[in-house]
Amino acid sequence: MAITLTEKAADRVGKFLAQRGKGVGLRLGVKTSGCSGMAYVLEFVDSTEPEDLTFESFGVKVIVDPKSLTFIDGTELDFVREGLNEGFKFNNPNVKDACGCGESFNV
Amino acid sequence: MALLQISEPGLSTAPHQHRLAAGIDLGTTHSLVATVRSGEPQVLEDELGHALLPSAVRYCSDEAPHVGYSALNMQDKDPTNTIVSVKRLMGRVLADVNEAAELPYALLDAPGMVRLATVSGDKSPVEVSAEILKALRERAEKSMGGELTGVVITVPAYFDDAQRQATKDAAKLAGLHVLRLINEPTAAAIAYGLDQAAEGTFAVYDLGGGTFDFSLLKLSRGVFEVLATSGNGHLGGDDFDQRVYGWILQHANIAAPTAGDMRTLLVAARRAKELLSKQDSAPIQAVLSDGTAVDLTLEYSTFDTLTADLLQKTLISCRKALKDAALAVEDLNGVVLVGGATRMRTLRREVTQFFGRQPLTNLDPDKVVALGASIQANILAGNRGADDLLLLDVTPLSLGIETMGGLTEKIIPRNTTLPVTRAQDFTTFKDGQTAMSIHVLQGERELVGDCRSLGRFELRGIPPMVAGAARIRITFQVDADGLLSVTAREQSTGVETQIVVKPSYGLGDDEIARMLQESYQLAEADKHARMLQEAITEARRLLESVKAAMDTDADLLDDAEQVEINAFMQHLFNAMAAGGTDDIKKHMDALNNGTRDFASRRMNRSISQALTGQTVDSIAA
Q: Which of 2.160.20.80, 3.40.190.10, 2.60.34.10, 3.30.950.10 is the CATH number of B399-505?
């Protein structure tokens, strides 16, 4: 299994990284919090940890720590527009149930 | 599920705790809202893809007010209820509004701020601005998928406390939490990342639809200081349209256009102006209400000639500001263009020539202020690391209070970085004085009459003491938005009063410039006036105490001595009336010397009174 970006998401991430002027890639992960147990982490990466795993999609490096990977393995990150809003969306096959807003989830 | 944005390393937010922050450019003709998404500042558009929201509000009798294009489109049909350019009225009383006669609104004089009579009742400019802010807030919350944590709103550099407070009040009314107000030129400089430099001096040339503002900013240690501002409240892109419109009337032989024709031709004129930013000639085609077809071609060179004097006017303002700040164009490290009208090629050519350098133009000049505000909002909301310097503003004019004799005592000098708190101790002037009137002033001059009064309040309940014994601490606090609160506290009893200064009316940019200018030119005269006032105050205090002493202890003086002291007092009194500083000082010395014996006799008496009935032991203990 792996973590992937859609082409659209990779395109946006690449653009944001270029604009930011620094950073080696994008970190995906989870942390424990929120109303349904887990919450996603989506951050720029300036430095990686030794245990980090790196995936690559459309030329963008995706960095995940091994603990998080067990919760999000197989996830595809997409970039979507919903009305006036736009942003990244996790398509995570591991999710059993999410809270109403989908910001936190359970596996 | 909710859509996520990329955070800075380690700054991911917990679910439902997004720090959504936006920057708002609340403009005279147009307003915008922007935010930082995944590290990128971007202006938020409405459903139709419009980034600009016309700053127009139309009040209706039976429904909620319309804001933006729908309001602007009704301006001709319903001029009295369609409010545009309300920014010009913010924090103003009727007497301040020079153009009152030209405005189609029913302006009402009201204490504090002018009001507008509309079909849905009297509205203050604050309420009208709040409608615009509400529309922007709604757009931002739809775009960002949540409630805004806070906003940064931009205001012109020359806005005074009244205008800034009015802007904050409007935001509050619109349900927005204001993180900070920042100056428009400062926001433009931030958008260009100029705050990342170590230091430098920058010019911001802002030609909007109806106003021209020029500012000189000095950056040092991450703080932008406004060195000088100048401009013209009635010069903007619309004036260029008017010139083209006049040319069309002349060349198409139109003598009396109807209101509808006028609108059609103004739109055509504007379009031609915009085309000439890209090409060398622009076709002007329109059909008038009576069926006449207008078909002209406007050459770039003709446009150039038609509008040359307008550009020159802006450059005169630039020259004035440079002169005020004692800078030459060579001293500048960069020039930023702001406002849609700065897209004109003729303008860019003239500006480049004037400053001897290419101005910064790679950001959209309509959006640059909002983008800068969003960057600042993002930092203030805590979405960036701690290594980012927080940008601070400075006080445009000194703040102080009136002291005896009509003198100004400055407590916070001009160009102090905000926020700031400064305190100073004052005392009573008369024996048994139980109240003190505190008069808060803004300005650089030495005499109260030459400064601007921001407010007055009274501290009561000071315990009766001899003059000079009470300790009254006056604390001036200016928050990050440039708003002032003043506290007076009597130190021994702790009685305290406070005001937040919301001055009743404001100063224009010209006026601030004038006040600064005068303070430099008249510094010498002011110094003398101050010395004279100080001498007079001192003399009055001396006369007061001698008189009080003579009233209580007249029996210590024989008749000749009394006559002599009275003569000294009369001389001093005459010298005060004549108004010579040196003369007053001379006669004060004379009176002091002439009463020395009297003073020592009084001293002896009060000591012996104090000692009467006491034993040596109890005194030693």
A: 2.60.34.10
DSSP-derived secondary structure for B404-466: TTTEEEEEE-TTPBSSEEEEEEE--SSTT--EEEEEEEESS-SBGGGSEEEEEEEEE-PPP--
DSSP B64: P
Give the tokens for residue B205: 């040339």
List residues bridging with A5 in a β-sheet.
Answer: A77
Residues 34-63 of chain A whose Cβ lies under 8 A from any Cβ of chain B? 34-35, 39-46
ipTM of the complex model: 0.81
Q: Which of A27, A39, A45 sits opposite B14 (nearest CB)?
A: A39
3-class SS at B176?
coil
CA B436, CA B184: separation in Å to the nearest integer? Answer: 39
pLDDT digit string, tens, across residues B611-621: 776 655 555 54
Interface test mutation site (partner B, options A6, A41, A95, A97, max chain B beta carbons within 10 A): A41
Whether A46 sits inside 8 A of B9 (CB atoms) is: yes
How many angstroms separate the CA of residue B153 from the nearest CA in chain A?
22
- Alpha carbon distances (Å) from A70 to A30, A47, A57, A65: 10, 22, 19, 9
Q: Which amino acid is at B241?
A: D
Range with lowest mean pLDDT among A85-94, B251-260, B464-473, B506-515: B506-515
Sheet holding B484-490, edge to edge: B420-426, B472-478, B484-490, B496-500
Largest distance between two CA atoms of chain B: 115
User: CATH number of the domain at B21-194+369-385, out of 3.10.150.10, 1.10.3880.10, 3.30.200.20, 3.30.420.40?
Assistant: 3.30.420.40
Distance, CA of B158 to CA of B119 (rounded, Å):
33
Instruction: Give the number of A-B residue pairs with CB atoms closer than 8 Å.
Output: 98
Mean pLDDT is lowest, of A94-98, B116-120, B490-494, for: A94-98
